[in-house]
Design brief:
A hairpin with a 4-residue loop joins strand 2 and strand 3. This protein has a four-stranded mixed beta sheet, sandwiched between helices. The protein contains four helices and four strands, in the order H-H-E-E-E-H-E-H. The protein starts with 6 loop residues before the first helix and ends with a helix. By secondary structure, the protein is α+β, with helices and mostly antiparallel strands. The longest helix has 24 residues, at 84-107. The structure holds zinc ion. Zinc ion is lined by residues 66, 71, 74, 76-77, 116-118.
């Protein structure tokens, strides 16, 4: 992918990708709601501040942008060809932080699920994925 944007432009785009209440998160929320799950948002008291928490299932969900969180083997996670060190460092830092949050949450007895941005395109598939998450979880 040719990177025609200036670092500043890209930085702005990426900042908006990482912000709260993004499209992907709303999509997962509304699907969970339709499926009858009750949840709360942005659990600030939990490691990594999971995007969605389902206390009844003791499950924490992160919704990760593929680029921002370095989704492995994903077509959407291609790293920019310019400012390589800058982006590598940033993404690697995010990945480390994500991994640490998952370890801490598990240590507290939470199940952790990560939903990637690229998994949101097909609602049926996402619905099945969510059903699998909670099958027999209670
Ligand atoms: Zn992905």
């Amino acid at each position: 992918m040719a990177d025609t944007r200036t670092p500043e432009q890209r930085s702005r785009i990426m900042a908006s990708v990482g912000s709260r209440d993004t499209g992907p998160e709303k999509l997962v929320r509304s699907l969970l709601h339709k499926m009858g799950y009750r949840f709360r948002l942005h659990a600030r008291d939990l490691p990594g501040r999971p995007d969605i928490v389902l206390p009844r299932y003791r499950t924490a969900i992160f919704i990760h942008g593929c680029f921002w969180h370095g989704h492995k083997n994903c077509g959407k996670s291609g790293r920019p060809k310019s400012n390589v060190d800058f982006w590598n460092e940033k993404i690697d830092r995010n990945k480390k932080r994500d991994a640490a949050a998952i370890v801490s949450l598990k240590a507290l007895g939470w199940r952790v699920r990560v939903i990637w941005q690229c998994q949101l395109r097909n609602e049926m598939a996402l619905r099945k994925r969510i059903e699998r998450y909670f099958a027999g979880a209670v």
